[in-house]
Amino acid sequence: MEFTTSPDDDEELFLVAAAGGDQGALRRLLERHRARLRRMVALRLDTRLSARVDASDVVQEAMLDAARRLSDYERERPLAFYPWLRRLTADRLADVHRLHRREGRDVCREERQGVPDASSGLLVDLLVASDTTPGMALDRDEQRRRVREALGRLAPRDREVLVMRHLEDLQVAEIAAILEISVSAAKMRHLRAIERIREILESDGHGPAS
């Protein structure tokens, strides 16, 4: 009988080997997540920084952090590997944004209006494209304006879970691990975000987002 290993089994093998000093295993372990991490950063990178900061550089710094801390991670296993790696990357991205503020650039006023990242437009596109309600048969630009306004009225944590689920394509279990909540709470937060957008649009006299 022939046995095969799953991607999760492969990751566990790479992780143990990498923590033991196998540099080849370390490279393979990190490379399998590079594209996902780059997308996460690109979605959240302040558009005013895009000309000076490359998402790949942020990810590379996070991977260096991961390589230094891997032995401790493998010993303690505070959470699943990808959520841990993503958290390191998010910390690096936060450092980039903090440096931007320390350099004296006026971002506070703009951040009160919503962080200008790539996820905003992509979320609007996703919600407009998925809406098949006859009452929303409006000019696309008008639809986009109304959905953008609805997203702007969401609580930041509700908007974040939409980005994680629909733009990063994270599984609910991964979202729960990253947010340090239960899987059922993550499902509820996602549902609440969708329902809140629907309520906002309906209260404004427009059809619901689906």
What is the molecular shape? globular
Mean pLDDT: 83
Compute the number of helices: 10
Strand content: under 5%
Q: What string gives the helices and strands in order?
A: HHHHHHHHHH
The number of strands is 0
> What percent of residues adopt helix (DSSP H or I)?
over 70%
> Major beta sheet, specifics?
none
Straight-line N-to-C gap: 47 Å
Structural class: mainly alpha
Cα radius of gyration in angstroms: 20 Å
Low-confidence stretches: 1-5, 106-115
The gist of it:
With 210 residues, the protein is mostly helical. The protein has ten helices and no strands. Helix content is 72%, strand content 0%.
Give an overview of the whole structure.
- Helices cover 72% and strands 0% of the residues.
- It has ten helices and no strands.
- Helix 6 packs across helix 7 and helix 6 crosses helix 8.
- The longest helix is centred in the first third of the chain and has 22 residues.
Based on the model shown, name its key terms.
210 residues, 10 helices, 72% helix
List the helices and strands and how they pair.
Blueprint: H1 7-19, H2 23-44, H3 55-76, H4 81-102, H5 108-112, H6 118-130, H7 140-152, H8 156-167, H9 172-179, H10 183-203
